[in-house]
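Journal club side-thread
Mid-discussion, someone asked how the predicted structure for our own chain would compare to the paper's figures. Pasting it here so we can look after the session.
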Amino acid sequence: MKILIVEDEPLAAKRLESLVQEVEPDAEVVDRLESVRAFVRWWQNNRATGRPSPDLLLMDIQLADGLSFEAFQQVDITTPVIFTTAYDEYALKAFKVNSVDYLLKPIEKDELELAIGKFKRNLHTSTPENLTKVLEAYGVKPVAYKSRFLLKQGGRFEVVDTRNILYIYADEKVVFLVTGENRKYIVDETLDELEGKLDPKFFHRINRKYISQISAIERIEPHFNGRLRLWLHNRPAEEEIFVSREKAEGFKEWLDR
């Protein structure tokens, strides 16, 4: 089990990591972070390099630069969360109603053991749906992915549903969106900007040039040095599209969800 701790008090973070090792000797604390900004940056880098997400987050509510809930407005988090909090009874009631685990500070070993045990028995304890309800109770909206694009085509505008997108690719400094009907549109955004706006259940950043919809992938073959070669629907067969060795494992995990 891989656990990420988000706690802005160094002594509390160190103690929490020590308690984790006592309760779950086989668990690995992959990192300790102290702010919303550090967490968002860590999460984005982890995703960009294709590494798998932690199995569990232990996350303080009040961090050095704001509420940890703010992170859910900036990155897509589906990992179960056990919040730690010094909030009052009203706040704790919100967590109970929505079945999201919490620990009231100061955290005791037996409480952490019970919370992790609950997580292990029911991996859906902190489902995204329940977490969304908690965030809404605090007036926080989680990441909302684009459902359609308004794009200019010739002298008119057209609406393109994201479900109809095969892939988006960059050619020099121009970004193109290609639909299932093999229609091509120019998009006035970078791939980096678009990556955060598309639902990762269906879209994946293959490499620096491509974001692909899962249905666009026709063929996958292992290649030299741990890379993967892909063939995409409506792309020239002779075009070589690769997933790097560093991103190959994350890409395969995305396909195998």
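Post-session note: The mean pLDDT is 84.
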